[in-house]
Amino acid sequence: MKLSTRKWSFPLALIALLLLVAAIIAAQVLGSHLAASANGPNHGHELGQRTKLSGHMAPLLKKYKPMHASNGQQTLNLAISLNLRNSSELDALLAAQNNPHSPLYHHYLTSQEFAQRFSPTRQEVQRVTAYVRANGLRVTGISSNNQLINVSGTMENVERVFNVSISDYNLDGHIAYAPTNEPSVPADMANMILHISGLTNAARYQPQLTALPGNTRQRHQGPQGGYTPTELRTAYNVTPLLQAGNDGTGQTVALFELDGYTPSNIDTYLQQYDLGAPKYSNVLVDGATNTPGSGAVEVELDMEVVSAIAPGANQKVYIGPNSDTGVIDTYNKIVTDNAAKVVSISWGLCEQSSGDAMLDSLNNIFKQGASQGQAFFAASGDAGAYDCGDNQLAVDSPASDPNVVGVGGTRLQLSTNGTYQEESVWSDPTTTDRGPNGVGGGGGISSHFSRPTYQDGVQDNANRTVPDVSADADPQTGYSVFATGRWGTVGGTSAAAPLWAGIATLINQHLKEQNQPTLGNAHTQLYNLFTKQQTAAPFHDVTTGDNLHYQATQGYDLASGLGTPNAWNIAQDLAATNNGDGNGDGDTGTTT
Q1: What is the dihedral of CA 374, 464, 406, 355, to 10 degrees?
Q2: Residue 589 counted as domain residue
Q3: Needs which cofactor (predicted)?
């Protein structure tokens, strides 16, 4: 039997149609693969569109070119900042808390109440943690307010998960890594995430202090020159508060620090000036230790200046790593602990060294602190109007944050009997260790934050301006300190900030004893004292000098702010004008 094969045949037109359909299908498949590749790495169940997270590129890095890809095997420790909920409601609450005519005036939230109303939800945290875990990163912590998720992993894995390239840069001889593009995440997560800290180590926060050479001795009464606690108290009229029994007892000051200190140095200072027993304790963040390093002088200066003004106050020294992640975690710890109503900050960074998203992440943390009645006092920088250390006008972060009181610097002169004589804005164009223009009190116009309402009618710039207030900072009229095992004289706005923090602590104690609400987020009260006629003058108006660019004038200016403190007058004016609820601190337990 002969087998036969059946020959199939189609019309040519039908064959052409089938070939065309096949080509279209192949093109669609190829296109989808190319789109997935362009949108980021293949994450299994995370296929689909990705959205860039803007604001991670620091403006200051734009003048540098990346050298090459960084070492992908090094470990990165990240903090993923999540967006707050109900942000408009939060802004309205902050305004009401500072409005004397509002029933919510100085009625502050607890940290638990803030979390319930404004923090990211548990579902959002779970979504983000599930994503990073599924893609090989390790979740090392979740903050109690759900704002921060800490993760770690190799750089190459971080690059893959967030579709970001990280390269090394030569920053004028300092090698650092930073992203060359904005990171991205799956589109459904984009509205949850504000910022990813730790993608760069280019920015190192600096202590805002300036020390005199060791062989320089001043006329003032410190063992190696420098103003003593008694001289500082007299100059800024703190003594009447102390005589009234307001030494800070029952109050707590938080100190934000990025280095350690030697307790015996603090104890020597306390003994020299008869300031009582030590009242400090440490809160260590992200594995930091109290190991003194190159920034120990700053930490010891802060602790000693607070002790000089408020010797009875407890000091909680928050120590974190000097990195973007360490900085944001340490601030968040201060706020979520909510153990201190006054916070002193002497470390800063010029605004252009941070991306917009980092500044916004910090602002969310400071907003929580403000809603809880915490007052932040931050050094405004020691490079005058040129905070980035170049020839461009710039201001310092976090002093430029609208929920932080920026503290500028002056040169304080006392009369022969030790009383206040005069002040001028601190600047010295001959000392160039901070930049080519010299050193001086920081001040100017923020490039990121718009003008807050408390500055309406005070300054006419569209953006936030600093400083808000000032105090002695010139090392030639500096502070007596015992640091790193010896006596010396130190200046800088990082001395002015803890001085203001100490004064605020005494004022809080005084107001509480008068059954008046405490300072809380201090801006509105300070500016109200300036704009409205007071019984006693709350500030010394600094009208001479400049900060290498902005000139001091009568009234508010970008060199000295509102002026320097008359502590007793501020306390008396506030006690006469505040409308408290009778509980002394403004907390109500619940706020709606």
Answers
A1: 90
A2: no
A3: Ca(2+)
Q: Please indicate, yes or no, if residue 97 is contained in any of the structural domains.
A: no
SS3 track for 328-387: HHHHHHHHHHCCCCEEEECEEEEHHHCCHHHHHHHHHHHHHHHHCCCEEEEECCCECCEC
If asked whether residues 217 and 247 sit together in one domain, one would say yes
Domain CATH code at residue 243: 3.40.50.200
> Contact at 8 Å (CB) between 407 and 426?
no
Q: Are 162 and 154 in contact (CB under 8 A)?
A: no
Peptide bond into 452 cis (omega under 30): no
- Give whole-number Cα distances, 501 to 86, 140, 425, 498, 516, in Å: 31, 33, 20, 5, 19
At 120, is the secondary structure helix, strand, or coil?
A: coil
182 and 231 fall within a common domain: no
| 233 and 125 together in one domain | no
pLDDT category at 221 given cuts 50, 70, 90 is confident
Whether 219 and 159 share a structural domain: no
Q: Which domain holds residue 542?
A: 206-575
Per-residue burial over 23-46, b if 16 or more Cβ lie within 10 Å, else e, is eeeeeeeeeeeeebeebbeebeeb
- Can you give the pLDDT at residue 173? 87
Per residue in 545-570, pLDDT (tens digit) is 999 999 999 999 999 999 999 999 99
Distance of alpha carbon 326 from alpha carbon 396, whole angstroms: 18
Q: Considering the chain, what percentage of its residues have pLDDT values greater than 90?
A: 79
Question: For residues 26 and 384, what is the distance between their CA atoms, to the nearest angstrom?
Answer: 63
Scanning 119-216, the segments in alpha helix (DSSP H) are 122-134, 155-161
Phi, psi (rounded to 5 degrees) for 303: -65, -40
| 188 plus 225 within the same structural domain | no
pLDDT of 281 > 50? The answer is yes
Chosen domain end from 197, 221, 252: 197
Q: Distance (Å, rounded) from C-alpha 530 to C-alpha 570?
A: 10
Task: Give pLDDT tens digits for 116-134.
Answer: 999 999 999 999 999 999 9
What is the structure's pLDDT at 210?
A: 62
pLDDT of 362 higher than 60: yes
